[in-house]
């Protein structure tokens, strides 16, 4: 049991102790030639020190507390009792703009029933201008007493005079009301777009649920995502991630114009996290032309392209070899075909553009591995691992396919929190057999893969405490685990730290300067009020982050 009051008072004492020397955007380095952080400092997976010495943006030494002895008092930041410093944590898969937009639109996270959803949109609609579209995000029907997804009819009951568009937490489905269907021109005769599905009732009438590529059908009803809104979204998103304790983000499905905005933000000193960008497939030629690489301070990088092979498990869009256990006849969506994929991957390889592909289902993962093999298969061991290709999610993989990741040097970029959200429905959807290779972090480690951890925010909250808890406990936040949820796939503290530090740095080709606190590495540090590996997930708070020697 966590004593909230106690946590808060410890936190404020800690903040007061540190704010005497530190405030956001500054560093003791501004006035001190070198400064030190002392206390419980984990410098790398399985390694610790009592002090880190920092000069400018880099670490100059790590060692015992005596490192700080020669420094004037104002150049020493002593961590409060119980606080733990980790090498700067990287969220290995998030959508920065989406995180910001989540903060800027109706946030439906934590909605516990269709009834509550109705109450929330009714009161939100009351606050909007007449006719304005009500746009929300973050609902998920897992555990709802109604036992189903919401429909247009549910929404119509409370709001029918304006369009309502509510995106599911996973971003792969949305429910809209009848007004939105009407305004978007979706009728009985509207065909399913490629890679998407308009859900229909027995009579063929749209129910209001739009899956994957059917979602853009209502694009015209949404607030225009112009440059100003993007800029604000990226700023809000980056600040949110920093406040949660991250120092770096692998930013997925990015539009090229966002990289330009991020670079401007960074130059203006307004970017509190490092951002490693993986752009949308349509940007491949542009990336080839303009080249990959980072700003001089490694704050903003263009790494590569993120492709998609399938959808998500929650909306039954994940591509499976066999039918969904709870919906015979359905095997998910294939969003990319072999010829296009291999051609694009080959082109990326020849132009040194890193490739990553979203793959959730066992067939989705199999296909991507196979297509990667078409490009990498003839190369020797060193060469085929050199481009460090990745698969995002690697969520349900046939056990036989798991060793292929290490063989080709492919990073499985996995989201611990997905496993603790999905544990409520995945067994029914997949059946026991397929759970053997589902969210199999432990097995990937055993096979020598470079497992990276991420949150997929805004699909999940994007909180490192939750990711660490999920990875090491493999239990829902309330302690639920359920039968057959393979507790042996949980990882050790060392492995969890690696997922968010050293392995994440390796995946973006920065293992020589990021991911650990050592001489010559960037001074990137995530500080928590307690030990996130020892406490319940919410008993510890993110106290501060340091990026490139500056407090953020
Ligand atoms: Zn994602």
TrEMBL record:
PANTHER family: IMIDAZOLONEPROPIONASE (PTHR22642), PROTEIN LONG AFTER FAR-RED 3 (PTHR22642:SF2). GO terms for molecular function: hydrolase activity, acting on carbon-nitrogen (but not peptide) bonds. It comes from the Bacteria. Residues 81-551 form the Amidohydrolase domain. This is Amidohydrolase. It comes from Parvularcula marina. InterPro entries: Amidohydro_3, Metal-dep_hydrolase_composite, Metal_Hydrolase, YtcJ-like. Residues 1-24 form the signal peptide. Coiled coil: none annotated. Keywords: Hydrolase, Signal.
